[in-house]
Design a protein that fits this description.
single chain; about 70 residues; elongated; cytoplasm; Exodeoxyribonuclease 7 small subunit
């Protein structure tokens, strides 16, 4: 499984994360495959979290300017 590209857009990372979760929930994978999927999911979640944190900071800044 290729490493997660940290420049992925939010929607791309979210969509891939959804697929990882579906694969894990479906089962039928070896322990090694499941661990690789889980690691990829964690990396994708970090990308999503970074985007969401950035969006929150931008919203907070915009709201602070209005005051």
């Amino acid at each position: 499984m290729p490493p997660v590209d940290s420049t992925l857009g939010y929607e791309q990372a979210r969509d891939e994360l959804i697929e990882v979760v579906r694969s894990l929930e479906a089962g039928g994978t070896t322990l090694e495959e499941s661990l690789a999927l889980w690691e990829r999911g964690e990396a994708l979640a970090k990308v999503c979290r970074r985007w969401l944190d950035g969006a929150r900071a931008r919203l907070d800044a915009a709201l602070a300017e209005e005051r």
